[in-house]
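COURSE: Structural Biology Practicum
ASSIGNMENT: Worksheet 4, Part C
STUDENT ID: 0417
INSTRUCTIONS: Below are two proteins. For each, the amino acid sequence is given first, followed by its structure token string. Answer the questions at the end about the second protein only.

PROTEIN I
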Amino acid sequence: MQTGDLPRNSRISGALTRGGGHASIGLLRKRYCKRGHTIRDVARLAGVSPGTVSKALNGTDRVGADTRERVRAVAKQLNWQPNQLARGLVLRRTHLIGLVVPSITNDFCAQVYEGAQSYASERGYSLLLSVTEDDPQREASVVKRFTEAVHVDGIIAIPAPIEEGKSPFRDLHAAHWPYVLVSRRFPGLPSDYVICDNLEGGRLATEHLISLGHRRIAYVFDSRQSACTNVIERRQGYQRALAAAGIDCDPALCVAVDLHNHPQNQVQLRNMIDARRPTAIFAHNDRTAVIVLGWLRSVGLGVPSDMALVGFANLNLATIVTPTLTTVEYGLRETGRLAAKALIDRVEGKTAEPQQIVLTPRLIVRESSGGRLCQS
């Protein structure tokens, strides 16, 4: 009998089925020492078809648990792994995911990456990172390269500030190319996304300051992101909290600053404070809050003694600065993990409807607002 003609009911197959396949595998190793093992070798020893081997090792639920474990045991003993390149050609997948972020130095992006990378690895995918600096043209170039040259299976992105009609993700949606947006979204585009409940977060931050007796509360945000949904929705939450407390919303207290032009944003903040005399500032994110904190110090204003301050996101720097930053948290690593899950499920055909995940925020009270500290 030729080695390649081992029948399913052979002594080798029977021994494996009964759990005593070590000697049989050793015999097969000797016989096959002159060539690498193939999926057919695994199939013969496990007593199944090559197709069942593929399904068992790909984690499909169409294979019984006993069969799956038997196939994995054989593959491990033979030190055999599926050829990912060949598998990708068959499935028309690369098992690559493009991650598009504004910055690699921003802790926000780093935490989202960590969450996405960890989950993607568990599902057998790798991440390719690309940075846009929130530049719409660079973003369009990155998306084109990922889809036309690299052929990623899908894209996770913190989209650049741009009109919905000009976004490259509108084209991806029309082409049915899998993608998931993080933090920001386009209201008219039925995308998969993972975001925070920004209305609720804005309300929590503002109500906290109101509870401390503040009635002149400013909302400060990055002028380059003024059209982003997260900035708009947090401002709406801020405005609703003021209205609920019977406080008129002064438009002059909503200030857009250019975070990349420190002299200019200092002038904008100085003019707002001199003209409107706020006693508290809600910054649309922690990075903005820290820049505001530095400027307040430079002009001799103390936090929280002269000005209470609240941020948003709970970045690592929120616990490093002095005073520590009161902020709104919603789980950045979990955001990345959920985005990767939503994308891979979409790629693998496990979902049909848009996956629109909205995370619940919570307030973390620290020193900068002058409130009673959270135990965290």
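PROTEIN II
(use this one for the questions)
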Amino acid sequence: MILGVLAVALVAASPVRAVTITEFAGNPKTISSFPVNITSGPEGNLWWTDIEAEPGIVRMSPSGEYLPRISDPNKPVDVVVAPSGWASWVSEKGTGTRSPGGFVSITESSLHGSSIILAPGNHLRWGVAKASARPLSAGRLTTATTSSPKGPATGT
């Protein structure tokens, strides 16, 4: 009886559609690439972190065009892009931001970030893998709402 019900369910199920997967190099300039986390921006671009030979933030348009890389020697591990276009990331040795106009600010610290999210009210929350002599902890950044080249304000 159970086999008969299973057979009817399989026959009645709609066919699975084919999916096309296109692979792209994490870094088209070198074979040494280690993408860590990926997100999409409000403009439709993909943004991801790369911690290998050329650490930084890599961006790609929906058509597959690589956009200028954002270099960060502190090895970014996670990135988030706000609807306004502000990008913020945590790295193995600090934080970084990019304004919608392209101004980049990198802050080195003992912070070893592990993840970052955009919370309600445009607040950034991040997880810390290790920081100095402290065990796991968390932090908070508040993004600026102006287009000031100074970037978002920081807080704890």
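ANSWER KEY EXCERPT:
Q1: The chain has one domain: 31-155.
Q2: Helices lie at 2-12.
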